[in-house]
Amino acid sequence: MENVVLFGNGLNLLNNDLSWHDLLDKILHEGLEDKDTSVCIPSALPNTLQYDFILFNSYSVGKSIVEERQLILKKCIADNVKHFATNDIYKILGELKVDTYLTTNYDHTLDESLRQIGYVPDLSKSNKQEKLYNIRRSRAFSKSGDTKIIYPIHGDIDNPKSIVIGYNHYCGTIGKLDAYLKGRAVWEGKPLPKMEVRLYSEDFAVKSWIDHFFFSNVHILGLGLDFSEIDLWWILDRRKRLIMEDCPIKNHIIFYDIVKKDVSSCYDKDLSREELKFKAKYEILAKMDVEKCIYEVEKDDYNSSYRKAIGNIENYIKTCI
Known about the structure:
- By secondary structure, this protein is an alpha/beta fold.
- The chain folds into 2 domains: 243 residues, Rossmann fold (3-Layer(aba) Sandwich), CATH 3.40.50; 61 residues.
- An 8-stranded mixed sheet has the order 3-4-5-2-1-8-9-10, with helices on both faces. A two-stranded antiparallel sheet has the order 6-7.
- Helix 2 packs parallel to helix 3, helix 2 packs across helix 4 and helix 5 crosses helix 6.
- The longest helix has 19 residues.
- The chain starts with a strand and ends with a helix.
C-alpha cells in the first residue's frame, strides 16, 4: 500500500514565517484600499470567517465588488507566501521514499527542496486544468525516472483564484468532494462510481488526492487540523461512515502532532480552554479511526521534534516494503 504525506504550515513556521493569523491581519491592513481601517479581526472567529470578515470590511457596493475584492485578497495572500524559504525539514521530507505529497499550503517551498536534491519540474505529469477548485490540481517533479507528485489541495499561488479560504470556497469544495465520493462526478467523460463501489471492486487507480484517504496510508505532519478545516474533517467523517458500513477500507491515517504540552491524558479540570480543544481533537480523531503520535517539544526545539516524527514515518514506510 502506498504511503503519502499531508503537510501544512507548521513546516514554514520553523523559519518564523507568517502564521495564519498574522497573514490575515496583514491583508486586512494592506490588501484593500476601500477598507475600514479602524477595525481589527475578532480573534474568536475561526480562520475561515476571519477571511470573510476582511472580505466584507468595505464601504463599497455593487454586483461585482465581492468577486473583485476576493481576487485582490487572494493575490495579496499569494504575494505574501511565494517567498517562503525552504529548510532542512523540507529537504528531509523531500528525500522520503514517498511518491505523493498533499499539502494545505499555497506556496512552493517543498518544490524548492526537491530542486535542490536534483528533481526538475515535469509538466507532462502535472495537472493544472482546473481554474477554481483543486480536485485534480498537481505539480510533478522527476529525477532519473523517479517522479514525485504534489497536490496543493487548498490551492496554488500560481493561480490565486484556486486559493481555498472563506466559507464560500470551503463549502464549494465540500460540494465537489461529495460529488466525487458519492458517484455524481464525471471523470474523463465517464461517470465515476461511488467510493464504496470502487473499494469493493478494488479499483484503486488514483484519480485525485481524495483517493489517498481511502487507498493509501496518510501521514499528517505540520498541520494542526483546526476545526475550521471543514473539508478535511468532512473526508475523515465520510471515511469513518464507510468503515462503519463495513466497506473494505484497509489504509491507516496517522496524525503526528508537535506540541509544547501533551494534553491527551490530562484531566479536563486541569486544562485551559485552548488545551481542551487539543484534547477534544485527539478524542474525535480516535473515534474516526485516525491514529495519533504526539511529540512534546523540549526547549522550543521544534526542529528536533519534526526530525523524530519524520524518522518514525520513514520507519513505518520500511515496514510496508
